Every structure is written in C-alpha cells, then in structure tokens.
Amino acid sequence: NTAQKELDNITKRLKSAVASRNQAPSALDALVAATPQDAQGTPSPAVELAKYRLEVAEGRVEAMQSLVEGLESLIQLENISYKAYQDRKAFYDATNPQQKAKAIESLSQLLDRLIAWKNVAENDISASAADLSKLESRAASITSEDPRFSLLNEQRAIKSETLAMLQRISQMVTAQHKLV
User: What is the pTM of this model?
Assistant: First the structure.
C-alpha cells in the first residue's frame, strides 16, 4: 500500500525531527549562557538565530505529525469505499423496509462524515496556504546570504509538503463523496 509506505517514511523523518528538536533547547541555553547581551539587554544575533532554529525544529515536528495524521486519514478514506459498497449491497439485498432504512442511514452517516472531512480539509488548506504566503513574503525580503535564509526555506518546504497532503486529502474526500 502506497500510503502505508509513505507513512513509514514520514514516521522515520518524524523521529529524526523529534531528536533535533529535543537537542535545540540545550544548544540555545548553552549559547545564551556563553554569549553576553549588549547594554540594552538585547540578545546577540547568534542567540536570535538559535531561537529561530528552535522555532523551525518545533515547526518541523508539528508538520511531520500533521503528515502522519494526513496519511492515516488517507488510509481511512480508502476504507470508506468498501463500507459504502457494503451498505449499498445491504440496501439492494434488503428484504424489508427496516433493512433498507438501516442501509440508507449508514450511507447517510458516511456522507455526513465526508462532508465534515471536506470542510475541515478546506479550512486547513486555507490556513496553510496563508502561512505559506507569509513565508514567501518573508523570503522575498531577505537575501540568500542572510543566515536565516536556509531556515526560512526549510519552513517553506515543510509548509508546502503539509499543503500538498491537505490537498490530497481534499481530493480523496471529493472522490469518496462522489462514490457514496
């Protein structure tokens, strides 16, 4: 199963991201302890960069967790077609009105789930697209020599991957909705 292989790959990436995130706070603390602040108490640029690195590491973990949840959703969505088939078959094989009503109710519940799933996916796509747009604007405002540039690109890549997953879920929900 393709989704299961992707899930295994993302799970490995998540473990790596968690390890990096867990190391980032101690690196930041060590840098803060070793780096003096200026007269106004402003942290050094190195400390600010380390804080940003920590923020990116936390975002990477959240994104990987979101991708895992997305792939699990795709697997669940694949199973809906089988359930819909069973319900339709039960409807056609029904010998009395109660059995037909039960099959129709089950199909209606599937449809309601798909509608709710589609609404959530569309809202998540909008939010993710807005976040990506903000990152794109930020990237346009700094040069490639800026030490934050690679971290910003990493954030953009992570957000793009999350957006692509949400779009896949939305497409699968639409396909399953048509099927039901």
Answer: 0.82
